[in-house]
């Protein structure tokens, strides 16, 4: 892309606008806040505090057109195998398509199967929620433990935390992901085998961490229930791999399937969301799917100049590739969204952390930014200092809600006042004149100046509902898609996670054994050190 006409025009334009301050942009353009705002699917976005003009937007939109974004969106929605390195369709949008819609992969309409699984999940979730699903000794389930990692963990845990307000409070939910034994040990130490249900969530059902934890969970269960037959009541599987599920000993009747056209990081609305559905109930889960779908439709059919994921995706490219921004902060002002930045890290970085184009060449521009964040206002008291006065440009998304789900005193006004104050401070800062006028001693003035000109988007919705959560997740999914198209990379594979996995499996027997080590000198010495400690 960096050789395209639009790219060169943007590079030129960047030189012209690079030093222009948001103060000036606002002072000379009173209509800016109104013009640079969009609303879709219940989400309002003010993107006026970005370092852009009408010309920037025009050029960014040309970039999208030159990259063929329109055709690429159509290709995804029509089931084309746009994940070229794995020769797969990319159809997470089918997971939330209403009954009766037709979406094809390999000539087969996938929507009926999606609804079959959803119905099966609903039946199961209702039975667990009502107490009709019994453990081996006839007791109702009290705790649901999701065992999975990556997309099979981050989506479920994020959605559970985000929608906790809607969850059935007499059921508890735990999430085990890490191969570190501490995770499963802490998750199970106070649980009763008779009332615990494990959901083993793994697309491949071969992932080391999940399989290790699943086997440990089974041992823990059998220690209490002492009968292999108990597994059927206390384990269900969520996977695309029926063969491996059966091998593990889970009845495939208790398996909830999905398909290879759902990427792990795009799977929280597939059967991988079973824990979410048990927590919030099938109706709320379907509301969440409706939110996803509304944003899908907006993305698919709205002209780019009014298309939220397209505009936000292009703005992020503007900062990554022209301003050289290395990172991107996502700052939800809602405690329920505390795991949202972690979820987005996999979505954005596993998708767009690529240095090779679709044609297999090294990219000539930067790709995926480092996404990070924490809920506000906590972040304000830890890392915001660097965003305000550090040397790096960190574009940020502020996410807030008009109403709190827990209206306590004036907490919500205080929370939202901080959203508005932070974006204002970032954009406009405080000049040396202003600082001096406050009577600050001359030597102290430079320390108290806020340069400003730090860009942000403000994303607002009425209330954090299941539907709004679906809309927000789909918004970011399609931002990632837009970025990937501009960067001309495959956003849907993840070869970069393979090498470490292979090397670890080679090292496992070496830790147990005493044979000669054939790594580099550093790795050899580290393994030796561990071996010695292990023998003590
Ligand atoms: O190793 C990365 C990854 O493949 C992710 O893409 C995926 O979400 C995670 O591992 C878990 O995979 P699975 O659901 O197959 O266990």
Automatic annotation (TrEMBL):
Catalyzed reactions: alpha-D-glucose 6-phosphate = beta-D-fructose 6-phosphate
This protein's GO CC annotations: cytosol
Principal place of residence: cytoplasm
Class of this enzyme: isomerase
Location in or out of the cell: Cytoplasm
Keywords: Cytoplasm, Gluconeogenesis, Glycolysis, Isomerase
Active site, renumbered: 350 (proton donor), 381, 501
Designated name of the protein: Glucose-6-phosphate isomerase
């Amino acid at each position: 892309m960096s050789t395209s006409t639009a790219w060169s025009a943007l590079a030129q334009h960047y030189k012209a606008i690079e030093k222009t301050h948001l103060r000036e942009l606002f002072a000379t353009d009173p209509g800016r806040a109104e013009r640079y705002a969009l609303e879709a699917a219940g989400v309002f976005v003010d993107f006026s505090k970005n370092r852009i003009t009408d010309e920037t937007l025009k050029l960014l939109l040309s970039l999208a057109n030159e990259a063929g974004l329109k055709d690429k969106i159509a290709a995804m929605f029509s089931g084309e195998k746009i994940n070229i390195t794995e020769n797969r369709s990319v159809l997470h949008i089918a997971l939330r398509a209403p009954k009766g819609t037709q979406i094809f992969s390999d000539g087969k309409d996938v929507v009926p199967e999606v609804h079959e699984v959803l119905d099966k999940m609903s039946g199961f979730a209702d039975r667990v929620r009502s107490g009709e699903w019994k453990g081996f000794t006839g007791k109702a389930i009290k705790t649901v433990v999701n065992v999975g990692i990556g997309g099979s963990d981050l989506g479920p845990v994020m959605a559970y935390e985000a929608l906790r307000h809607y969850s059935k409070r007499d059921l508890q939910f735990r999430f085990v992901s890490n191969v570190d034994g501490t995770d499963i040990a802490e998750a199970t130490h106070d649980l009763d085998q008779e009332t615990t249900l494990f959901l083993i969530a793994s697309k491949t059902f071969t992932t080391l961490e999940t399989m290790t934890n699943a086997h440990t969970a089974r041992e823990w269960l059998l220690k209490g229930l002492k009968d292999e037959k108990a597994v059927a009541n206390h384990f269900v599987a969520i996977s695309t791999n029926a063969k491996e599920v059966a091998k593990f000993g889970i009845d495939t009747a208790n398996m909830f399937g999905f398909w290879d056209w759902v990427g792990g990081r795009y799977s929280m609305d597939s059967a991988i969301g079973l824990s979410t559905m048990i927590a919030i109930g099938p109706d709320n889960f379907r509301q969440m799917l409706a939110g996803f779908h509304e944003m899908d439709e907006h993305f698919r059919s709205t002209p780019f100049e009014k298309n939220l994921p397209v505009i936000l995706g292009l703005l992020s490219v503007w900062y990554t590739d022209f301003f050289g921004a290395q990172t991107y902060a996502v700052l939800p002002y809602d405690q329920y969204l505390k795991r949202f930045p972690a979820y987005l890290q996999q979505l954005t970085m596993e998708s767009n952390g690529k240095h090779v184009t679709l044609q297999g060449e090294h990219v000539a521009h930067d790709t995926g930014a480092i996404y990070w964040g924490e809920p506000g206002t906590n972040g304000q008291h830890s890392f915001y200092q660097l965003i305000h006065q550090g040397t790096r440009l960190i574009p940020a998304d502020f996410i807030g809600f008009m109403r709190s789900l827990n209206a306590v005193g004036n907490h919500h006004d205080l929370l939202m006042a901080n959203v508005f104050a932070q974006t204002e401070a970032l954009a406009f800062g405080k000049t040396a004149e202003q600082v001096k006028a406050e009577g600050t001693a001359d030597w102290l003035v430079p320390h108290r100046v806020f340069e400003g000109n730090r860009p942000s988007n403000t994303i607002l919705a009425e209330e954090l509902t299941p539907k709004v959560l679906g809309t927000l997740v789909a918004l970011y999914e399609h931002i990632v898609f837009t970025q990937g198209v501009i960067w001309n990379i495959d956003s849907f594979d993840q070869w970069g996670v393979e090498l470490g996995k292979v090397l670890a499996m080679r090292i496992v027997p070496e830790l147990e054994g005493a044979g000669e080590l054939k790594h580099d000198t550093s790795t050899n010495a580290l393994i030796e050190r561990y071996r010695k400690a292990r023998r003590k």
